[in-house]
Amino acid sequence: MTNAYRVAVLGATGAVGTEMVKLLQERHFPLASLKLLASERSAGKWVDFAGEAVPVEVLKPEALKGLDIVLGAAEADVSRQYAGAIVEAGAIFVDNSSAFRQDPAVPLVVPEVNLADLAWHTGIVANPNCSTILLVVAVWPLHRHRPLKRLVVSTYQAASGAGAAGMAELERQTRQVLAGEVPTAEVFPHPIAFNLFPHNSAIGADRYCEEERKMIRETRRIFHSEALPVAVTCVRVPVLRAHSEAVNLEFEEPFPVAEALALLREAPGLQVVEDWERNHFPMPVEASGQDVVLVGRVRADLSCPGALDLWLSGDQIRKGAALNAVQIAEQLAGGRR
């Protein structure tokens, strides 16, 4: 590769793809060219990039030739369909879908945590699930210092986790409820406005939903700790954008709160938000649009010696998806950040 890179965004008109394009511009990624690829219904649209109009092209094999890096923001079946063609064309595929997250031949990377795994890629790099990314960025500095004995997390996942359509449904249902109408559900299985429910991904025979299983498997894989006990409950909440998580961390030995806070304050990708007098801790409205994960309310678990509780909020479209992929691309382009 040269000092400027021929980049394509696959699924460029969706919520994550749109954010990827913004971040490439905001972070001054060294582009030789930018190609925006999407389905036929989006073809012919134009997207502004650094003052220039870039056309949206139909995704097809011939459109993948002559590229260095492809950022994937499409569904898993699309990623599986085109991954081979991307690699055969000589590009590196940084995929945000679930298609390759559990493939042992594909590194699953969060740059703040396991950047070294990027070294053994063979043309494909996987982005973890959004909730997993936010979790491991906050937990890794503590786990690296004092290994975890057990990890328990409950998520509070915004409508934006279902993309632009999920956000639009929350807005529409909110207007319906306030107008005294019965909200109609199309994207989610239940009304999301003024309501919450367990995550709507498929539930398996073990009674865990797929979102919960993703977080368990991916956290273990990123931490290189397949035996780590991880318990997860995922909940969809009526928040427009940015996920939050309540995290319980049990360690092999006591972990002083002051020591934990010092590590979190120094860790990349995090911002500690704690104002105990004002009861001000991480909130989705403050995490939205931010690149960092907000973490706070760090305290000793009074029920379990050696355990800590913390709370986090993070924009799952940015750090939980688009930003993580762009950071990986930056590393592939020479470790610029």
From TrEMBL:
It comes from the Bacteria. Its EC number is 1.2.1.11. Transmembrane segments: none annotated. One of its GO terms (molecular function) is aspartate-semialdehyde dehydrogenase activity. Belongs to the aspartate-semialdehyde dehydrogenase family. HAMAP family: ASADH (MF_02121). This is Aspartate-semialdehyde dehydrogenase. It comes from Gloeobacter morelensis MG652769. The gene is asd.
